[in-house]
């Protein structure tokens, strides 16, 4: 067995969860890689909502997903997810930090990220996944990381399973994944 890096492992989890026809969220569209991947998983019968506050990110994502008609690009904060999405989702993915090759002073922040995560959890179907890739090696990153970790550690065990996937012998604050699965309710 070969250990998967964080991003391939994240995609592997999405492949196991997202089905054709599903509704999903890319809470941090960035350069559109996750949006494109999710659009392929959901197929034309599904829906992908991709959020970003930066016009450059929306433009890059639009270009990357131009062959898909079932992607809705939202030039707004992910803290406003519930204003745009009301249907149940099978997955949501976040890549925290800043836009690669963009302005590194524009970063995700704990307050909006936690609000977005709470909204995603309320929309999440049973056995759905909320995936958060945390990059903390930049200014402001450790504060957001700590807030996210405090939030997920306090999620009720009866409702959610929470996994932290990271490589612990790497230097320079490598990214890690927090995966939250909504449990089936017991009837």
Structural overview:
The protein has a 7-stranded mixed sheet with strand order 3-2-1-4-5-7-6, sandwiched between helices. The protein has helices at 6-17, 33-42, 55-64, 81-84, 110-123, 141-153, and strands spanning 23-26, 47-52, 71-75, 89-95, 124-134, 160-165, 176-182. It is an alpha/beta fold.
Q: Secondary-structure blueprint of this entry?
A:
Elements: H1 6-17, E1 23-26, H2 33-42, E2 47-52, H3 55-64, E3 71-75, H4 81-84, E4 89-95, H5 110-123, E5 124-134, H6 141-153, E6 160-165, E7 176-182
Parallel strand pairs: 1-2, 1-4, 2-3, 4-5
Antiparallel strand pairs: 5-7, 6-7
Helix pairs in contact: 5-6
Quick description:
With 187 residues, this protein is of the alpha/beta class.
Alpha-beta content class: alpha/beta
Q: Name the beta content range.
A: 15-25%
Quantity of strands, as a count: 7
Instruction: Trace the largest sheet across and list its strands.
Output: 3-2-1-4-5-7-6
Computed over alpha carbons, the radius of gyration is 15 Å
Number of continuous helical runs: 6
What letter string, H or E per element, gives the SSE order? HEHEHEHEHEHEE
Describe the main β-sheet briefly: 7 strands, mixed
Give start-end ranges of low-pLDDT stretches.
Answer: none
How would you name the oligomeric state of the polypeptide chains in this document? single chain
Global shape: globular
Helix content: 25-40%
Question: What is the averaged pLDDT score?
Answer: 95
């Amino acid at each position: 067995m070969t250990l998967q890096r964080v991003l391939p492992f994240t995609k592997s989890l999405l492949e196991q969860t997202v089905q054709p026809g599903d509704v999903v969220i890319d809470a941090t569209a960035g350069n559109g890689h996750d949006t494109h991947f999710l659009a392929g998983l959901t197929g034309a019968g599904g829906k992908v909502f991709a959020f970003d506050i930066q016009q450059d990110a929306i433009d890059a994502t639009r270009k990357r997903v131009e062959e898909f008609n079932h992607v809705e690009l939202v030039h707004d904060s992910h803290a406003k997810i519930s204003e745009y999405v009301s249907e149940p989702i099978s997955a949501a993915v976040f890549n925290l930090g800043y836009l690669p090759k963009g302005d590194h002073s524009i970063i995700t922040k704990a307050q909006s990220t936690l609000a977005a995560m709470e909204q995603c959890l309320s929309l999440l179907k049973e056995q759905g996944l909320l995936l958060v890739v945390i990059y903390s090696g930049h200014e402001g990153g450790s504060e957001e990381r700590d807030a996210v970790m405090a939030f997920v550690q306090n999620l009720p065990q009866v409702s959610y399973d929470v996994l932290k996937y990271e490589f612990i012998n790497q230097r320079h604050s490598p990214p890690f994944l927090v995966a939250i699965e909504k449990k089936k309710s017991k009837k």
